[in-house]
Amino acid sequence: MVSPSRHLDCDHHPRAWAQTGRQGNIRSLLETPFCFGVGRLLPCSMSDFNTTDFTNPSTFILLGIPGWESAHGWISIPFCITYAIALFGNLTILLVVKKEPSLHVPMYYFLCMLAVTDLVLSTSLLPKTLSIFWFNSREINFSACLAQMFFMLSSIAVESGILVAMALDRYVAICHPLRHSTILTHSVVAKMGLAVVLRGVTLALPNPFLARRWPYCRTNIISHTHCEHMAVVKLACADTRINSYYGLFVLFLVSAPDVFFITMSYTQILRAVFSLPTKDARIKTFGTCGSHLGAILGFYIPYLFSFLTHRFGHNVPLYFQVLIGNMYVLGPPTLNPIIYGVKTQEIRDRLLCLFTRKGTRKAFAWGSSWQTTSHATLVG
Asked: From the first residue on, what is the mean pLDDT of each consecutive set of 10 residues in the chain (380 residues)?
């Protein structure tokens, strides 16, 4: 443990070092080794590493997009628009499905689960990112950082599971249409949703648990807009191989099977579609899968690109890695409501009816009040 005298003689609190970083000395901060003790950030030599027990930092400093600090105000515009689209689009989907009893079927139940997951994912990241861009509020509490990491990882795992469930729904609807209502009952859908959520939470929980146990003796500066998992792992001064092993476990035993089941489902769907007698029937049947395919591509392509960049893109500029990481976690919440709103005719029709009905009711109410007023005036 760092001796009390060193705390009394040292004024290097993380906030002070953050101020230094804002004045352009971020590079020196990143290259200077630091020791954490009782919430303080202390410069130390390599010899101290062998004699000091380190504790977790009280705060982390989020840099935002490294090298582009002067442009944060402009960069915040697309981020803000993205968040607004994600909020409005996903809430609209939830409202439309809730209001229309005809949409209370498995496909739209899964779509609602996807919308809720996207709301959790975007809301756990975007508010802090925008506060960095707008107010230069870079500090984040250590526990809040771990919570942000957990919600991000669990939401990603849940979304992958929901896409698998939606692929199963499309397979049953196209390949076994007469048995669809008996196979995917409300209770089965509820159990599938619960299993997907429990799986996502269980898979994400070890990462913040391991991160809390690691010692941090280099720096508390995270070169990212949020507490991205790998960015936090790089700050630990302990053996993090167990984290790498667990990441490979999740990749090969969870993500890979998800992609495999989706691929197998669509292989069977394509076989069933091409066996239909007419071209119009094939196009119409496969058109019901278009929005789901768009959601799958919008989720897994950025995921793969981000994974390859982290693992093998050592020469890729840091700002590009951060932008790719943000696109990976913010793309699906923004694209999913657009894809399903544009490609799914049922949602388009119900949304149009919903707003048209409201407009008609307002016009009728206004006309009634005008007629009443006119009648009262004439009587008077």
From this structure: 38 41 42 39 39 60 88 92 94 89 90 95 94 92 93 94 94 90 93 96 92 84 89 85 85 86 91 83 77 85 78 78 85 88 76 66 45 42
**What is the phi/psi pair of residue 290, to 5°?**
-60, -45
* Joined tokens for residue 227: 């507490």
How far is it, in rounded angstroms, from Cα 177 to Cα 246?
40
Distance, in Å, from the CA atom of 133 to the CA atom of 27, rounded to the nearest integer, reads 20
Please report which residue ranges of the chain form alpha helices under DSSP H: 4-9, 14-20, 26-31, 72-99, 106-135, 142-175, 180-183, 186-204, 206-213, 229-233, 241-250, 256-274, 279-287, 290-312, 318-343, 345-379
Query: Cβ neighbours of residue 58 under 8 Å, at least 6 residues apart?
Result: 14, 39, 141, 142
**Bridge partners of residue 240, in order along the sequence:** none
Task: Provide Rg for the chain, Cα atoms.
Answer: 26
pTM of the complete model: 0.77
* Cα distance between residue 255 and residue 257, in whole Å: 6
40: three-class secondary structure by DSSP: strand
Contacts of 173 (CB under 8 A, 6+ apart): 107, 180, 288
The closest alpha carbon to 254, from 327, 211, 202, belongs to 202
In angstroms, the CA 337 to CA 119 distance is: 11
Listed in sequence order, the residues at least 6 apart from 184 whose beta carbon sits closer than 8 Å to its beta carbon are 106, 168, 169, 172
